[in-house]
Amino acid sequence: MRHAWIAAAVLAATLGAGCATKKGFEVPGQAFGCPIGDQKIASMEDLVKAKVVMEGTRTTVLPTEMRCTKTGDLLKIDANLNNDSKVVKRISYKFRWMDREGMRAWDEEAWKPLMLYDNSNLMVNTVAPTNKVADFRLILRSQE
Amino acid sequence: MNFARIPRFALAAAAVALAAGCATDKTRYGDERAVETVTNEFGSTDLQLIAESMARSMQQTSAIASGNLPIVTVQEVKNRTSEYIDTRALTDSIRSELQKGGKVRFAVDQSGLKQQTGEIDRQQSGYYAREQSVERGQMVGAQYRMEGNITSIVKQVKDTKDVYYKFNLQLWNIRNGLLEWTDEKEIRKTTTRG
Question: What is the CATH number of the domain that holds A133?
Fold first, then answer.
């Protein structure tokens, strides 16, 4: 009788686990709220690799975390930039905006200068300029 | 011995002077969106940063984001810095960014009112076909007015000059006088000699 109760409990737990939804990537075509299209993104590292582009002089400053959400009908992006070196780093960044067809949804943005203290993080956030934006890239370059 | 050296130096100096005199200026097109740090006075990067930051922030306010295309008029941005800044260029850039975003319409502002009414008067002068001429009393008033100011703090010691700018922009509801939105953009630039 006792064994039967244990077996029932194990079965219930298994069934419950089977029905539970997998957290993190619930919405198809999104990872951490950011649009990814049909790309395979399994981790934050993958997302950063997919969304960050270096142009000009490369910098060691990189986002450690990126998250997206919607404010009204506009895409909102938070990117946590990390300087893990022992010196102050100066970089510039801009966002590039694409529409559903992969065409540019907005003019090229101005480079925005940024100073990061040694061993520090800095949150960069922005909002898409128009609701036509479906995807983005974060462009980084060194200003040293 | 020393006398023999002097003409050599003089010759070298003359050669350098000649070379400098013959040097031609080279003009190239650059990236208009690049970070500009030629001096620490107000520059193109500051203008672009302020315009983009303000327009993106304003687009998120409920008055604009509601999607019913509110009508805004641009009023003065006061320059409270110690240097000359074309504040009209700033508001023009903010207006362009907002208009392109497609969430706001702009009514003619005070600086353009004379041209606007002048054109209506011209069409009503009797020289134009009446059925195609615009009538008086058809202009649409704004629901919101946008105004702001830019201030600076400049500090200088022997070899270091520090400039801090603060740009503040506000969106006022004309009907009830309520402040619907306000935001600031701060910029710091430091120049050290040597």
Answer: 2.60.40.3230
Q: How many domains does chain A have?
A: 1
**Per-domain residue ranges for chain B?**
31-107+144-194, 111-141
- The CA distance from B65 to the nearest CA of chain A, in Å, is 7
Render pLDDT for A57-80 as a digit per residue (tens, 0 to 9). 999 999 999 999 998 889 999 999
In a domain, A10, yes or no: no
With respect to residue A95, please indicate whether it lies within any of the assigned structural domains. Answer: yes
What distance in Å separates the CA atoms of residue A144 and residue B159, rounded to the nearest whole number? Answer: 21
User: Distances from the Cα of A60 to the Cαs of A1, A115, A119, in angstroms?
Assistant: 64, 13, 12
CB contacts of B52 in chain A (<8 Å) are: 109-110
Please check whether residue B61 touches A, CB under 8 A: no
> In chain A, which residue's Cα lies nearest the Cα of B100?
A130
CB contact under 8 A, B101 and A143: no
Tens digit of pLDDT for each residue in B32-84?
Answer: 999 999 999 999 999 999 999 999 999 999 888 887 899 999 998 999 999 99
In this predicted complex, what is the ipTM?
0.80
Q: Judge contact between B114 and B71, C-beta under 8 A.
A: no
Q: How many CB pairs under 8 A join A and B?
A: 45
